[in-house]
Design a protein that fits this description.
Blueprint: H1 13-23, H2 37-52, E1 59-60, H3 64-81, H4 85-93, H5 98-118, E2 127-128, H6 131-150, H7 169-186, H8 190-200, H9 204-223, H10 240-257, H11 261-269, H12 273-291, H13 303-322, H14 326-332
Antiparallel strand pairs: 1-2
Helix pairs in contact: 1-12, 2-6, 2-7, 2-11, 3-10, 3-12, 3-13, 4-5, 4-9, 5-8, 5-10, 8-9, 10-13, 11-12
Length: 340
């Protein structure tokens, strides 16, 4: 925020994907159109780290359309709350108490998803692909970065609103590279953190987000940007119910996908084409949310957005149910024996 991004908007994967697809013309909400270098930096940083660490591996083929739909609905839920899990933590660090409802909803969604996981939910196995297949996503991101730098006439740039508030390109790109490197190395994922805490009492993955909360809180206090309360928060609304339900949808979808939006970007950079499909679903969800009035605003949720979130919860639950392994369920009851 100090360097140009809007308040409590320092890094939001859902918002930045939404801004980027707007800049590319996939939605026409004029106040949220800007190619965010942070997203590109995250992908490239994670890609370089994965290659250097010999962790790059092109693979895919695990229920691609289900993943697309889940990615779509995760963003619909996040844009009801107005932020991804990472921004949820940053909002709390800035004093935005509405984030508490988001955290509760997110944890509820993950807890519900664990029920499906414990009953054999799976999107099935992946298959090895050619290395070049995995290189395409970082190459496309690099191409989008060139569009930002050259600013051709067919790219849209906001002149007001959140899309017009951004740090210089070099600083934003550098910040994204750092986040990409660290997130790839540490496996940072709030969904995985809460899942492991609930299932195994393991705090390891969640500790990274707690560190982000403490660091962001300290920075807000140091720069005088901490504003405790429910009202008057930047790019936020105070409807607790829909903040809760929006992040419940995001949490449920993310746990079935195996990671939050940030984690999906990192996996995409590592060569996981299933995660690339998920990111494309998120991009489509962001565009649709603004083209059809599903996204909330500072004035609160829209009627269309409320319907979309409720339908989204039903669709994600159906994906969870119909992808449970019945033989797994029978084995857990002792009725059949499954071969190892």
């Amino acid at each position: 925020m100090v360097l140009g991004n809007a308040g409590n908007y320092g890094l939001c994967i859902a918002c930045f994907i939404r801004d980027t697809v707007g800049a590319l013309g996939f939605h026409r909400a004029a106040v949220v159109q800007y190619i965010r270098p942070e997203i590109i930096g995250i992908v490239l940083g994670a890609f370089f780290m994965a290659v250097a660490g010999k962790e790059y591996s092109a693979r895919g083929g695990s229920s691609p359309f289900a993943r697309f739909v889940l990615g779509f609905l995760v963003i619909v839920g996040a844009l009801m709350f107005l932020g991804c899990p990472l921004r949820m933590i940053l909002r709390l660090a800035g004093g935005d108490l509405n984030a508490i409802f988001g955290i509760l909803g997110f944890a509820t969604g993950i807890g519900t998803g664990i029920i499906f996981l414990n009953n054999g939910f799976s999107l099935k196995r992946t298959y090895s692909l050619s290395s070049f297949e995995g290189y395409l996503f970082p190459l496309v991101c690099t191409g989008i970065l060139l569009l930002l730098i050259t600013r051709p006439g067919f790219i849209f740039f906001s002149e007001s609103g959140p899309g017009a508030s951004h740090a210089p390109i070099v600083i934003s790109l550098a910040a994204g590279l750092v986040v990409g490197v660290l997130a790839q190395k540490t496996r940072l994922c709030m969904v995985g953190g809460l899942r492991d805490l609930f299932m195994f009492k393991d705090w390891h993955l969640l500790s990274g987000f707690l560190a982000i909360l403490v660091a962001a809180l300290a920075a807000n206090l140091a720069f005088g940007t901490f504003n405790l309360g429910f009202t008057g928060q930047p790019i936020a609304h105070s409807d607790g119910l829909w903040n809760f339900l929006g992040m419940a949808l995001a949490g449920l979808g993310s746990v079935l996908l195996g990671g939050c939006p940030l984690r999906q970007l990192i996996l995409s950079a590592e060569g996981n084409i299933d995660s690339v499909i998920t990111v494309l679903g998120m991009a489509a969800g962001a565009a649709t949310a603004h083209n059809f009035g599903l996204a909330a605003s500072a004035e609160g949720p829209t009627a269309n957005g409320k319907i979309a979130v409720l339908l989204g919860l039903l669709v994600v639950a159906a994906i969870g149910y119909f992808n449970m392994d019945r033989s797994f369920e029978l084995n857990m009851k002792g009725d059949v024996k499954i071969e190892a």
